Amino acid sequence: MFGLEKPAGQPKPGRSGGFPKMASVGDFNVLSSSIPATKVELSVSCRNLLDRDTFSKSDPICVLYTQAIGNKEWREFGRTEVIDNTLNPDFVRKFIMDYFFEERENLRFDFYDVDSKSPNLSKHDFLGQMFCTLGEIVGSQGSRLEKSIVGIPGKKCGTVIVTAEELGCCRDSVLMQFCANKLDKKDFFGKSDPFLVFHRSNEDGSFTICHKTEVIKNTLNPVWQAFKISVRALCNGDYDRTIKVEVYDWDRDGSHDFIGEFTTSYRELSRGQSQFNVYEVINPKKKGKKKKYVNSGTVTLLSFLIETEVSFLDYIKGGTQINFTVAIDFTASNGNPSQPTSLHYMNPYQLNAYGMALKAVGEIIQDYDSDKMFPALGFGARLPPDGRVSHEFALNGNPQNPYCHGIDGVMEAYYRSLKSVQLYGPTNFAPVINHVARYAASVKDGSQYFVLLIITDGVISDMAQTKESIVNASKLPMSIIIVGVGPAEFDAMEELDGDVVRISSRGKFAERDIVQFVPFRDYIDRSGNHVLSMARLAKDVLAEIPEQFLSYMRVRGIKPSPAPPPYTPPIHVLQTQI
């Protein structure tokens, strides 16, 4: 069964095979060309479901649907088992999904009381449904989302608890060091120049090279440097799979002489330095020819240290908050908002370029921000009542509290300020970058990370100051996303992005790449289907954030906080599966 755990227990009599197998999400992911950040396993429990059975309690099943990106059509992803006679099910069967930080994966959980063995859901009683996004589950405290079940007017349908667990996929690496003793002498004038070659075995019995040590010159008793290798590369996560190690004498012409070999496994190596990890190096040809042959030396494991690679999700689970700030360009180069040619045109029927960019990116980020309160700033406008020019004003008109509730609140404040301020200039980025940097500088312990979204027409006036602000901000827990709207040449924005040449100011280079620039015009769908362009835009804009986030944590040596203990459902009901 794709992507589902095998259900435990015996099939329910009379119902076996009644429900279809689950399809993997890859079957209908429009953007499946990207590599998933990770896989997550979703567990579903309900409390106080509706009782639709007269003489006993409901027999619930949960059906998960995902939404296609282009046409918004809901497609069935999979079903849990049926649990007899309970209003508080803890479903055993899990849903395993690809998780992409930069995509908004809409989910719908439908609940039914199963009345017969028919796989046709219309034949069963509907118990309600719950809508959410995968990011909302992952971004909830402890990656545990509790929400009311809705869908039956006038009825309390109970609650659903969905928990996300990242699947390890063997994220461990190992740091190992080896030495050898009394290796065979292979060189005529000197001793040998030994090195080791590691191979992992494949399912078909063949071997794949996975690591080579450095060469140690002129010795029969080498001590090689410690090296780090992922467990996946070493044994593909299979601890008992054979690992073959060959010992060679290096020759300048590349015709390295074979000294001998030995085999081991991850499980054996994991015992660390011990008598079990001293290996005889055997040369099969020599062994066949010489009766008195013992070995061609020994190789000893000196140390074995397991390191677990941490992921973006580990930090989110441990409580790290993503704080999202929006800054919008209100300079005169955008054009008069009352004219259709303006990038700020207030069209009553559809979003303008600024509104589209804001909604696309914001809707994804907001799932990771627990209070959903976003500071929203504007720059480059003259403000009422006195017409002073500001490069850092609150869109909601309240400098003491520039927070807006959710992306809808930001959109509302944006449209309101368009009516009250006068577009002016110049286009200065540095003040809004410094504004967010002040907050980021006050929490460097890994508990918070700041993302500034600047939406601009790309005509920048303070390039030198902006570069300096970015170089300074690269030491802080923050990233900057610049979305360029309109037809301008965005050479200056490309320079700030720093993907080709690392950005510098006064001879100082940015500690890490923190800027991602995307030109909005590349994502506008000519047919006017804004949804597809939004999905692609959000994807390209946000794909670099997890790596930028991890690079900050790594440089600072910040480990994720432990996740809160997993939720244990208070009620345990005898479960049966179909």
Automatic annotation (TrEMBL):
Do you know which CDD domains this protein is assigned to?
C2A_Copine (cd04048), C2B_Copine (cd04047), vWA_copine_like (cd01459)
* Similarity comment text for this entry: Belongs to the copine family.
Originating species: Rhynochetos jubatus (kagu)
Could you tell me which SMART domains the record lists for this protein? Answer: C2, VWA
One GO BP annotation is: cellular response to calcium ion
Pfam families to which the protein is assigned, alphabetical: C2, Copine
Where do the C2 domain residues begin and end?
20-147, 156-279
What's this protein's name? Copine-8
Domain VWFA intervals:
323-524
GO CC annotations? plasma membrane
Record's keyword terms, sorted: Calcium, Metal-binding, Phosphoprotein, Repeat
Q: Which InterPro entries match?
A: C2_dom (IPR000008), C2_domain_sf (IPR035892), C2B_Copine (IPR037768), Copine (IPR045052), Copine_C (IPR010734), VWF_A (IPR002035), vWFA_dom_sf (IPR036465)
Tell me, what does this protein do in biology? Probable calcium-dependent phospholipid-binding protein that may play a role in calcium-mediated intracellular processes.
**Does the keyword field hold Phosphoprotein?**
yes
Q: Which GO terms describe its molecular function?
A: calcium-dependent phospholipid binding; metal ion binding
UniProt keyword NADP present: no
